[in-house]
Design brief:
The protein has 137 residues and is of the alpha+beta class. The protein is built from four helices and six strands. Strand 5 and strand 6 form a beta hairpin.
């Protein structure tokens, strides 16, 4: 398998694990020192920080990604994904509007760095103002 195809497979497995709610499988695909750039927020480093982030996400949100499209560089060191988030806001998240079970549909994307067959960086993006408008209304 080429490096390009291996990266497409790696990122596809990451999103399949996300949609299955299999956080252990997601963590297995990450480098130990993974850099996680939160949407419009700080960078968090390491699997422990990523695990804690996913715990908060699972407490506050129920999400499924659909229409996932993954692209990878020829050398397999970079990838990007575009998707549509279908979610439900379950519990208040700090600094955000109160949760009342609001549903939302939101386009999003991510950029990845790949090292030694693992995801070494995940940078996520979605339009926070669009999400706030959907859940505040």
């Amino acid at each position: 398998m080429s490096a390009h195809d291996a990266t497409l497979d790696l990122v596809s497995r990451y999103y399949a694990a996300f949609n299955a709610g299999d956080r252990s499988a997601m963590l297995d695909l990450l480098a130990d020192d993974v850099a996680h750039d939160l949407n419009q927020g700080p960078r968090e480093d390491g699997k422990a920080a990523f695990r804690a982030f996913m715990g908060r996400m699972d407490r506050c949100y129920r999400e499924r990604l659909e229409d996932i499209r993954v692209l990878a560089s020829a050398d397999g060191t970079r990838a990007a994904a575009e998707y549509v988030v279908h979610g439900e806001y379950l519990a208040d998240d700090e600094g955000l509007p109160p949760a009342r079970g609001q549903r939302y549909v939101l386009p999003g994307g991510a950029f990845f760095s790949i090292r030694d067959g693992r995801i070494a960086r995940v940078t996520n993006y979605y339009n926070l103002q669009d999400w706030i408008a959907q859940v505040a209304g």
